[in-house]
Design brief:
single chain; 120 residues; mainly beta; Hypothetical Protein Tm1070, Chain: A; 11 strands; 7% helix
């Protein structure tokens, strides 16, 4: 089973910041997570555990013929560290409008997404 993430907030390109990203994240309750991805999402993973956590942004076959698994984006987040995936292209990471983010473990891990929006 997967958990669906919703944006913590929508940030604009007017220099609005977040003082404490870690405090806004919520405890991961599964190893698998999905979120609606329009290409303007930043996903954050905070590792409060004692060992590294592997986070994978799952790639999908895209219209340009690139395969799926070979294009997964994988990061290793050290104990006490915070990792991030930014602005994933929907053509490369969406399946049915959703992007998938998998964790090697979820104990002591917090996760959350922010939407970035251009203001004209």
């Amino acid at each position: 089973m997967t958990t669906t993430l919703t944006p913590i907030a929508t940030l604009t390109d007017r220099g609005v910041g977040v003082a404490d990203i870690d405090a806004a994240l919520v405890a991961a309750t599964e190893v698998g997570h999905v979120f609606t991805n329009d290409g303007n999402i930043m996903a954050f993973i905070s590792n409060g555990g004692g060992v590294a956590v592997t986070a994978t942004l799952v790639a999908e076959p895209d219209p340009y013929g690139r395969g799926a698994t070979a294009n997964d984006e994988v990061i290793s987040i050290p104990a006490g560290g915070v990792g991030m995936f930014s602005l994933a292209n929907p053509a490369m990471f969406n399946a049915g409008g959703l992007a998938a983010l998998n964790l090697s473990v979820f104990a002591s891990v917090k996760i959350g997404i922010y939407r970035i929006r251009k203001v004209r």
